[in-house]
Amino acid sequence: MRPTGVSESCFSLFSLHSENALFGMGNPLLDISAVVDKDFLDKYGLKPNDQILAEDKHKAMFDEIAKKSKVEYHAGGSTQNSVKIAQWMIQTPHKVATFFGCIGTDHFGEILKQKAEEAHVDARYYQQTQEPTGTCAACITGDNRSLVANLAAANCYNKEKHLDLDGNWELVEKAKVYYIAGFFLTVSPESILKVAKHASENNKIFSLNLSAPFISQFFKEAMMKVMPYVDILFGNETEAATFAKEQGFEETDDIAEIARRAQSLPKVNKKRQRVVVFTQGKDDTVATIGFLSELVQERPLEECIRAGHYAANVIIRRAGCTFPEKPDFP
């Protein structure tokens, strides 16, 4: 994890260890994990170790895998996982983390609400009837996991019918740190922009994750509308390289140099110097999550980074985005 452009005072302006201090908004998915056999993989044309988006031929698979004898459910999706693990790292009080996203009015949606509650996240979902709750099936064979994601309702978030409602916007105003994955730029860039502007106007911390190379490539315009409000930019080395290429940075593959150039991009709130955190290694996303948990507790940068490494170390040893009851982190 390599940060650029930081002083400890960046993180010491608020008393953040309170309910709804951390706000996340993104694509909620119900993770469904079960052990399957080769016939199951063959039936749906799956490879033993893969990550794909669901096609029509996979739709029946989610109900079938849910009927397996030892199925496990977890609240998932990039941003929801992030705030969920930040909440786990913090422990108390509960509901430090708030999450907004769209689900369906179905059985999987009810399970997702239950799992978010068990994780002590204050999940306020927008529910609609057109699409079913988004799911991600983890088909386990031996040491292999084949992941199939069906975004479904996650693509249906509606700013006017959810974010703009007074009761929901009050939760946005209550937060002090904001984290949104770039994936949500494909769903509701106008929602991200509204939250980002609020954070900037009130000198709060707004963070964005590059999420995947295709976001920088194909959603560049939406991303760069948000960038002037970004206080902390997260990404891994592959995403950073693609971002640099799309931004027309002079030829460089040096991650530190790319971070410095990203840091110097135009910024609205001059009271905060932009922090750029580019991770290098297999488990970059989890490291980002741990970073957030310390950020909302006013810890200095070094502690944020140490927490990121700790969270990554714990979670890569477990199946899916799961964790023990309590962290062993001071």
Brief synopsis:
The chain is of the alpha/beta class and 330 residues long. The chain is built from 13 helices and 13 strands. The protein is globular.
Structural write-up:
This protein is an alpha/beta fold and 330 residues long. The protein is 38% helix and 22% strand. The chain has 13 helices and 13 strands. The chain has helices at 38-43, 59-66, 78-90, 107-118, 159-163, 166-174, 189-201, 213-218, 220-226, 237-246, 255-263, 284-295, 301-315, and strands at 2-4, 22-25, 29-35, 50-53, 72-76, 97-104, 122-128, 135-141, 144-150, 177-181, 205-209, 232-236, 275-279. Strands 1-13-12-11-10-2-6-7 form an eight-stranded mixed sheet, with helices on both faces. Strand 6, helix 4 (107-118) and strand 7 (122-128) form a beta-alpha-beta unit. Helix 3 (78-90) packs across helix 12 (284-295) and helix 7 (189-201) packs parallel to helix 9 (220-226). It is globular and about 55 Å long. The model is unreliable at 1-16 and 283-288 (pLDDT under 50). ATP dependent phosphorylation of adenosine and other related nucleoside analogs to monophosphate derivatives. Monomer. It comes from Oncorhynchus kisutch (Coho salmon). It is an enzyme of class 2 (transferase). Pathway: Purine metabolism; AMP biosynthesis via salvage pathway; AMP from adenosine: step 1/1.
Q: What's the story with the biggest beta sheet? A: 8 strands, mixed
Quaternary structure of the protein = single chain
Structural class: alpha/beta
Number of helices: 13
Ends distance: 20 Å
- Would you count the extended β strands for me? 13
